[in-house]
Structures are given as C-alpha cells and as structure tokens.
Design goal:
Length: 71
Amino acid sequence: MSEKVVIKVNDNGSYRVTGDVELVDAEGNVFETKKSFSLCRCGHSALKPFCDGTHRKIGFESTPRAKKENP
C-alpha cells in the first residue's frame, strides 16, 4: 500500500505535494516528479506547473484556511 498523498497550501506560496502521486497534463503525458514537489499557485512561474519561487518576487499573498467542522 502506498503512503497517503498530502497537499499542503503554503501561506503566500506554492502547493507542496508529498507522497506517491502521478502528475499528468491535459493530454495524459506524465510530468517527471520526485516524492515531494511544489506546484505554482500564483500563476507567474516560468516552470509551470511547478513553482520557481516567483511568488516571493511579485508579493503573492494568499492564506486560505480549511473550515473546522463543529462537533
């Protein structure tokens, strides 16, 4: 059994993907990835879909939080 995939939404930054996951484009072509990689969230990376750190240069701001369920 493979490990659970975790996608972390980094404050003011990328989506950090960790685990055994296959990333494919719209035509089904597979991107080469490692066990952990970052996806662009700001839309300005020169390496899309991967993050290249441009979010820091452009001042990208976003800090979404998951809603906690009431017991």
